[in-house]
Specification:
Elements (H helix, E strand, L loop, with lengths): L15 H15 L4 E4 L6 H9 L4 E4 L3 H15 L3 E5 L3 H4 L2 H10 L3 E7 L25 E4 L10 H15 L6 E7 L11 H7 L11 E3 L7 H13 L3 E5 L6 H14 L3 E3 L16 E2 L2 H4 L3 H6 L4 E5 L6 H9 L4 E5 L12 E5 L3 H5 L14 H21 L6 H11 L4 E5 L3 H9 L7 E5 L9 H10 L5 E6 H6 L4 H7 L3 E7 L20 H6 L6 H7 L3 E5 L2 H14 L2 E7 L2 H21 L3
Parallel strand pairs: 1-2, 1-3, 3-4, 4-6, 5-6, 7-13, 8-9, 8-11, 9-10, 11-12, 12-13, 14-15, 14-16, 16-17, 17-19, 18-19
Helix pairs in contact: 1-2, 1-6, 3-5, 14-23, 15-16, 15-22
């Protein structure tokens, strides 16, 4: 395999986060940095573009942050000069830690540049957000938390000095690691999107409502909580239940479904909420295609809720989250037995800390207001149109795709099976295209910090906890990130089929605005990161049975064989990245057209 070309792109204009990042690397170069190891990510976009565009820097792209950090360690040790590392936010930064420890004890100069969410998103349940402040403790020679650069105030002198000081501290006496934590606000791409699009997606746009309150209670809700919820229900005419990722048990699933049925509310169920599959998923009010429906701007505007009752973590769907931000006048009530503030949009007006089954399952919690009689039917009809449109469109497509795989897995897995979904595209594919069904299926995912690290190991561990088969739906980059887990899989894991979607890179980045800029920003090398590796041969090298498929019919046959045989097996599903993205966009267009044709 030929060595990939190092990205070299035009330098971005010195504005906002890109001006800050460009000045930061000027300082690093002045301090002796000549190489940067970059890992793909979205929040780190300004850093990656600045590194790749600097004429004095060699930019080396790595898929795995742990490997990238040790690669940089070896380079810095041999070259006797500081090497910089760039990663996105969340557990990506945590994967630097083993190399940081070695750098500290071995006195090797590294400069760790960890992109981060801005302060207003930290500790609010925002995806890929962990506490990165002094993440590496006393193992670094120096640490600094940079301020968020404003759109017209990039703080050029400060950024340049920060880079120079970081390089000097890393190369000082004794040399060692230095950590700069660098928060950035959206938009992250060089050109700012239209103002109206930014407002819809930004938590700062949600300014309506009243200041939030937390009503603490024991697991059995007291009369005060019942009264608080009752007051919200009494005023609602267009309410919705939004159930995000969580591991709801059977009593909770039954109570939530029964409440929605009695109240006549639409129930927007995330694929990983445990409410989309099982005996309680047969109600007509359950909405399993909210992601596709709410991508239609006309539909999203017309479905303005006045009350949102939320259970579980924030929704996986970006379209659903944007819709909630768009309608900022709606009251948002969060029911959480642990009382966590999982509210990245800062929209929750009332936090109820109690058992949702005990609260919603009580007959007293019937809505006492007048729900618009056309409200639920409008969602029910839209769900029907979306389901038919997607089914019809996919029936005409033979190429393997994420939507096809999501639906095939839901159809093939037996009653009581576990489906573990990797972050990035697999969990989004399930959320967007897995239809509701009454056959039980437990959908698990690492939606705490939303990282792609350790996915194989987590799924193999989950397989040990049940006699039912487990299936892991994972992308190629996440597979490569944790490929070492295959070494112990045959000894420790139970029945677990690993379906690896091999689209030779990070397909998720094609859904971000940065993809539209293509070669201008070195998109393929810096973000999509094609690897040219063969997951089937890699699995076989670990002694795991594996096969490669390239068609829908071949995938069905391979999946049936794997489920029948049991044990640990790998199915590599070859998917064309560009065709996959185009198909998903066509499906969303078909849903929008079906909604138009179904209007009275």
């Amino acid at each position: 395999m030929s060595r990939p070309a190092e990205p070299r792109i035009p330098r971005p204009a010195p504005r906002g986060p890109h001006g800050f990042a460009a000045a930061l690397f000027e300082g690093l170069v002045a301090g002796g940095v000549r190489e940067v190891c970059c890992c793909p990510g979205s929040r780190s976009t300004p850093l990656a573009l600045a590194a790749a565009s600097h004429p004095a820097l060699r930019c080396l792209v790595h898929v795995d942050e742990r490997s990238a950090a040790f690669f940089a360690l070896g380079l810095a040790r041999a070259a006797r000069r500081p090497v910089a590392l760039v990663c996105t936010s969340g557990t990506a930064a945590a994967n630097f830690l083993p190399a940081v420890v070695e750098s500290h004890h071995a006195r090797v100069p590294l400069v760790l540049l960890t992109a981060d969410r801005p302060p207003e998103l930290r500790d609010w349940g925002a995806p890929q957000t962990i506490d990165q402040v002094r993440l590496y403790g006393d193992r670094v020679r120096w640490y600094a938390e940079a301020p968020c650069p404003g759109p017209d105030e990039p703080r050029i002198p400060y950024a340049r000095a920060l880079g120079a000081r970081a390089a000097a501290a890393a190369a000082g006496s004794p040399p060692g690691p230095v950590h700069l934590n660098l928060p950035f606000r959206e938009p992250l791409e060089p050109r700012r999107p239209p103002a109206e699009e930014s407002a819809a997606a930004s938590p700062a746009a949600a300014t309506g409502g009243t200041p939030p309150t937390l009503r603490a209670s024991t697991p059995a809700p007291d009369s005060a909580l019942r009264e608080a919820l009752g007051a919200e229900l009494a005023a609602a005419r267009r309410p919705v239940l939004v159930c995000g990722p969580g591991d709801a048990d059977a009593p909770t699933r039954a109570a939530v479904a029964a409440f929605a049925r009695r109240a006549g509310w639409p129930l927007l169920a995330d694929a990983a909420s445990q409410l989309r599959r099982g005996p309680d998923a047969g109600d007509e009010g359950l909405v399993s295609h909210a992601d596709a429906l709410l991508r239609d701007a006309r539909f999203a505007r017309a479905r303005a809720p006045d009350l949102v009752v939320r259970l579980g973590a924030p929704p996986t769907s970006k379209a659903t989250n944007a819709w909630l931000s768009q309608h900022c006048a709606a009251r948002v009530v969060a029911i959480d037995p642990d009382g966590t503030w999982a509210d990245p949009q800062q929209r929750v007006a009332l936090h109820l800390r109690c058992d949702p089954a005990a609260l919603l399952g009580a007959p007293a919690e019937e809505p006492r207001g007048g729900v618009d009689p056309a409200w639920l039917p409008s969602w029910r009809d839209a769900e029907t149109h979306a389901r038919r449109a997607i089914r019809s469109a996919l029936a005409k497509e033979e190429l393997l795709s994420h939507p096809h795989l999501a639906r095939e897995l839901g159809a093939a897995l037996p009653e009581g099976a576990q489906l573990f979904a990797s972050n990035s595209l697999p969990i989004r594919a399930l959320d967007g295209f897995l239809p509701a069904a009454t056959r039980s299926l437990r959908v698990l995912a690492n939606r705490g910090a939303n990282g792609i690290d350790g996915i194989l190991s987590t799924a193999f561990g989950a397989s040990v906890a049940t006699a039912a088969p487990t299936l892991l739906f994972v992308g190629d980059l996440a597979f490569l990130h944790d490929v070492g887990a295959l070494a112990g899989a045959r000894r420790h894991a139970r029945d677990c089929t690993v379906v690896v979607v091999n689209n030779d890179g990070g397909g998720i980045f094609h859904h971000l605005p940065i993809a539209e800029q293509g070669d201008e920003v070195g998109f393929e090398e810096l973000f999509a990161t094609p690897h040219g590796l063969d997951p089937t041969e890699i699995a076989r090298g670990f002694g795991v049975e594996a096969e490669r498929v390239g068609s829908l019919a071949a995938f069905r046959d391979a999946l049936a064989r794997s489920l029948a045989a049991g044990g640990v097996r790998v199915i590599e599903a070859r998917v064309d990245r560009s065709a996959d993205v185009a198909l998903q966009r066509r499906l969303w267009g078909e849903v929008a057209s079906a909604l138009r044709s179904g209007e009275p």
